[in-house]
Amino acid sequence: MTWNLRQWARAIKRDIVALYGASRDPRVPWHAKAMALVVTGYALSPIDLIPDFIPVLGYLDDIILLPLGIYLVVKLIPPKLMAEHRAHADAGARLPSNRKAAVVVVTVWIVSLGATLWVLLPLFLP
């Protein structure tokens, strides 16, 4: 089977929707649910690890980190359950759009940045 870029992008989008569904399924192990939420949150987050405006590097996290995260989470979910969630995503399931969720994601990023600065600044300041 030959894959082009468009098919690859559709598969990534489908898997994000499938992982979101899996994160809410009681049959999925808790550690897989937690990782699925992290990967889904990262995929939907308006803030990237490396900002997209940085030439070349800005898109590397989207091209490498996201598929790697999806791959790792898919390996944690039993294959039959993952196939079920992929079929549900193919059938038209969508991610919910929720402003509250967006506020939570942005808040988590801001708190993480603040905590990182709080820990690292004393190391660089005299």
List its salient traits:
126 residues; single chain
What does this structure look like?
The structure is a single chain. The protein folds into 2 domains: 5-95, no CATH class; 98-126. The model has no long low-confidence stretch (mean pLDDT 82). It starts with a helix and ends with a helix. With 126 residues, it is an all-alpha fold. It has helices spanning 5-23, 30-44, 57-76, 79-90, 99-124. Helices cover 73% and strands 0% of the residues. The protein contains 5 helices and no strands. This is DUF1232 domain-containing protein. Its main location: membrane. Pfam families: DUF1232. It is found in: Endomembrane system. Residues 32-68 form the DUF1232 domain.
Proportion of beta-strand residues: under 5%
Helical coverage, percent range: over 70%
Overall body shape: globular
Number of E strands = 0
Query: What is the mean pLDDT?
Result: 82
Q: Compute the number of structural domains.
A: 2
Find the structural class using helix and strand composition. Answer: mainly alpha
Low-confidence stretches: none
Oligomer: single chain
In short:
The chain has 126 residues and is mainly α. The protein has helices at residues 5-23, 30-44, 57-76, 79-90, 99-124. 73% of the residues lie in helices and 0% in strands.
